[in-house]
Amino acid sequence: MAVASAVEFILIASAIGIVVWKADRIQRAMDAQRVAAGTQRAVVAMEHHLQRQASAVYVTALGPAAAPGGFAESADLFKGGLATFAAMAATAEERTLADRLRALHDEYSALGRSVLTSGVARADPGDPSSGIRRLIDLQQRLETAVADAARVVERNAGQAQERLAAEIAGLLTALSVISVGLLLSLGLGLLAVRHYVLRTVQGFARAADSLESDNVAFRMAWTGPAEFERLAARFNHIQERLQSESAAKTQIETREAEMLVALNSEIAANAETLRVVKAAAQAWRQTFDAVDFVLLTVDRDGVVQRVNRAALNLLGGGFEDWIGRSLSEFPDRQPWPAIRTLLDEMFVDGRPLSGRIEEDTVWEYACTGWPTAGDVAVVWARDISEMTELQRTVARSEAMGAMGELLGGVAHEVRNPLFAITALLDAWSLKPQVQEGPFLPALRREVTRMRQLMEELLEYGRPFNPSLVVKDLQPVAAEAVRILAPAARNLDVTIDVKVSGLVQMDAARMLRVFLNLVHNAIDYSPQGGTIDVVSETVTEGSQAMVRISIRDRGPGFAEADLARVFHPFFTRRPGGTGLGLPIVQRIVDEHGGKISAGNHPDGGALIRVDLPIAAEAVST
Amino acid sequence: MAGPRVLIVDDEPGIRLGVCTYLDACGFDVRDASDCASAVQLLHSHTFDIGVLDYALPDGTALAMLAEIARVQPAMKAIVLTAYPSDTLARDALESGAMRFLTKPIELATLRTLLHELTGTTGDGP
């Protein structure tokens, strides 16, 4: 009996040893499998969220329905999956993959956020150098990396599963061997011990069956020696884990399947929406660009989301140079500073605003949008210089017409008494008793002034001659210089004339322009000075102009006088009528031109007259 | 020998006084009229070498007088003066036989020279 008992004891002890050892190995195999399953889930999550990011990218690339929020959210979820994957990475290969994925995705999500927020993608999806192109490239590389990860984790999971199966099989084999030994010793052993052992064996056999049949709900019920109890408890613990993991796995698989279905239908719906949206976007961009005034949209942070072709023409460069930039980085020339101020005001005030600035160019501009109407402010600006100038010209010519009539009437009526006075003065001076004193010459001087004033008033008020003829400026300028040559000679002033250009003109009136301007220049020239009368061709908008510049070497205009030099009766010259430059301005106006007065950087007054080049001259 | 015989026609008494006094002092034989009717009377009663006619007169224009001059004294020359110059007026006057068409006011010294020139005489000066 002692021998039998000893044999039984040895068998039982070794059975316990084997089972404990095996259970430990099984648990480790299960841990490995759990890890493998975890990484697998992480990879699946990454795949899913990458698809969602890609979806956001494509939606944004093709239409104005930007979804940067969806992108950012998916990017964060992807990052979560990646963190799980990295934390669970058990092999060097997985760790390398995790690093690669992280690097790629950091770049991808950063670029994606900036591109989708800025709207560059929508500006030019076809451009291979654009952000969207790079984004799609990165995405494809990410997809490859995720697919690699999926392959690796699948392989690892398979291996873990196989190892677990092998361990379980080993345990079963060991248990069978022990069972046979125990059966052999039945006759020898203690009944009670035998009873325990049999139950043990039966229990483990059932447990083994449950493992083999994936019956994770099976629990070992055991009371008996502490070792066996501990063993049973461990088995049960493993089973519980298996059970909960399998439930979780099922749940995840179901969810993934649902998500995949949802994603597919979303993509299908998107494809249709995209087609519609793309067509609408194209129509919208064409409309946006067809508008001939500056149009742009700006978000709440002052970042420009869109600019139209007219704005681009004003700014120069390409769309990508301005979209996504802050309005504060736009040029400091108008209308941009005015628009910035207006947007700031609107942000405070909350109501659509408009404004008008008059500098070199007259701008009319307005903005509408946030905070009342969404996240985007629409801003437009229009160059109304030409219109304003036209309105002024019309107003001026109307006023001039009425004034001209009055002036003409007065001047003519003055001619008769003026003639009577000069005739009487001439007659009186011939009387033998009249002494040539200071009075007669003074009277004559004053009468001459009056006469000159009258002639200039007449010239100033002369009605517009609508029948202009295309002629060259050259002979007109030459004639003026010829007439003024004696006056120039007196002061030893040289006049350098290089003027040409075909212009629609009233030659007599145009002669007056040159006469007045060159005459002024002579009057203000120093002894021995030079006057340059030159022309060049300039382009004003689409209109080619002849620019005539008349420059003297005199003191130039006083800065304070510049604003008034074209006002009638403003003069700094003793005895001057103050009508010389207003007459010139009037005539230039009638010829559709522009005149400006200033000083040459190297000194001397500089008058510029721009006259439109005749259409005949342009076409030939 | 008496100077050239000049007819001055102008409705402005000041002009007539100044011009007549001046030309008289310069040796011209001057008569004057203030309207067309009295000028025509003078044309019928006196012979003139040249007329200085204001264009716009109370009872007509210088054109009517130019026609009368051509009819009554074909050898008489004429200058037309006006306070309302225009290309049309100038053309009409020159076509009707005027030698010159001038805008008021003019220097009397200039007028004197012109009168001598047109009548082929020389003045001694005042």
Along the chain, the helix and strand elements of chain A come as: HHHHHHHEEHHHEEEHHEHEEHEEHEEH
Q: CATH H level of chain B: which superfamily?
A: Response regulator
Number of helices, where a helix is a run of at least 4 consecutive DSSP H or I residues of chain B: 5
Terminal CA distance of chain B: 16 Å
CATH class label of chain B: Alpha Beta
What does this protein look like?
The complex is a heterodimer of chains A (620) and B (126). By secondary structure, chain A is an alpha+beta fold. Chain A has four domains: 2-259; 291-383, Beta-Lactamase, CATH 3.30.450; 387-463, Signal transduction histidine kinase, dimerisation/phosphotransfer (DHp) domain (Helix Hairpins, Orthogonal Bundle); 466-620, Heat Shock Protein 90 (2-Layer Sandwich), CATH 3.30.565. Chain A contains 16 helices and twelve strands. Chain A has helices spanning 2-62, 68-88, 92-118, 120-123, 131-184, 191-212, 226-290, 309-315, 319-322, 336-349, 385-430, 439-461, 473-490, 507-524, 580-590, 615-619, and strands at residues 294-299, 304-307, 353-358, 362-368, 376-383, 469-472, 494-498, 502-505, 530-540, 543-551, 594-599, 605-612. A five-stranded antiparallel sheet of chain A has the order 2-1-5-4-3, sandwiched between helices. Chain A has a five-stranded mixed sheet with strand order 7-9-10-12-11, covered by helices on one side. Chain A has a two-stranded antiparallel sheet with strand order 6-8. In chain A, a hairpin with a 7-residue loop joins strand 4 (362-368) and strand 5. The radius of gyration of chain A is 49 Å and the shape is rod-shaped. The termini of chain A are far apart. The model of chain A has no long low-confidence stretch (mean pLDDT 78). Chain B contains five helices and seven strands. In chain B, strands 2-1-3-6-7 form a five-stranded parallel sheet, with helices on both faces. In chain B, helix 2 (36-45) packs parallel to helix 3. The radius of gyration of chain B is 13 Å and the shape is globular. In chain B, helix 4 (87-95) links the parallel strand 6 (77-82) and strand 7 (100-103). Chain B has 126 residues and is an alpha/beta fold. The interface between A and B is medium-sized, with 19 and 22 residues.
